[in-house]
Design a protein that fits this description.
This protein has eight helices and nine strands. It is α+β, with helices and mostly antiparallel strands and about 260 residues long. Helix 5 crosses helix 7. The protein is elongated and about 115 Å long.
Length: about 260
């Protein structure tokens, strides 16, 4: 048992520490068997009481009291847990008690109140993955009795409606693409487009000037026109004249 300095400062007039150990050989040990399935009560338990020089019991601790238990050697995989005996619930509880240090030889617990303290060895929880693939688990997975219940019916209905909307969206998308291709073909075969293509190939008079700004404009327009001609079969001049005569068209959007 270790008393921290903050606790000793409140007991400057003197104190009495009572420590009683209850091991597995005691007849009262069996009355404290934990109710948790698989849990093992380590030996010994420690009953810790603190009194002032006047003989009054100390109930409120200024700092946690440290109690170290020998680390038990048991078969199986367990994790230690610090607990105290709750007189009201008549059961072990971890409220106000925590594990602060663990080594190969001992386990140290910090207690915020004085009582019967002990160390419980809690089994590690195993995964239920093996139970899922057991014969019983497979039979439960193949049981479709839930499919006719109201929540399942609502889920199926939502899935069908969502699939219907997806099919309609795909159909509208294909219809829009086909309509767009038809409009482009009709536009390219119209007399206005043929005339615009013919006139757009003629070099405007202002391009005959050879000052640096005009030369740069000619080179850029020529480069852009070559790109458009190679991709769409039209140039910038054609697009400009087509916009003036017919407005924004699918050809402009493609460009």
């Amino acid at each position: 048992v270790e008393l921290p300095g903050a606790l000793l400062q409140t007991l400057q007039d003197g104190f009495v520490l009572s420590l009683a150990l209850i091991d597995s050989n005691s007849s009262s040990f069996e009355f404290f068997v934990p109710a948790a399935p698989g849990a093992v009560l380590a030996s010994p338990m420690a009953s810790v009481q603190l009194y002032t020089s006047d003989g009054l019991g100390v109930s409120q601790l200024a700092a946690p009291l440290l109690v170290s238990f020998p680390r038990p050697t048991v078969e199986g995989r367990f994790r230690p847990q610090c607990v105290f005996w709750d007189e009201t619930q008549q059961a072990w509880s971890s409220a106000g008690v925590s594990l602060v240090n663990e080594s190969a030889d001992q386990v140290t617990c910090a207690a915020e109140h004085l009582s019967l303290l002990a160390l419980l060895l809690m089994p590690f929880a195993c995964s239920n993955a093996a139970a899922i693939f057991s014969q019983e688990g497979v039979e439960l997975l193949l049981d479709f009795s839930w499919a006719g219940r109201l929540p399942a019916v609502m889920t199926w209905l939502l899935l069908v409606v969502g699939l219907g909307f997806l099919i309609i969206a795909l159909w509208l998308d294909k219809r829009h693409q086909a309509l767009r291709r038809t409009q482009l073909k009709r536009l390219e075969t119209s007399e206005l487009v043929k005339y615009t293509k013919k006139t757009s190939m003629e070099l405007p008079q202002e391009k005959m000037q050879f000052d640096p700004a005009t030369l740069k404009k000619i080179l850029l327009n020529g480069l852009h026109s070559k790109i458009l001609i190679s991709e769409l079969g039209v140039d910038l001049a054609f697009l400009k004249q087509l916009y003036v005569t017919g407005g924004f068209s699918p050809v402009h959007a493609e460009a």
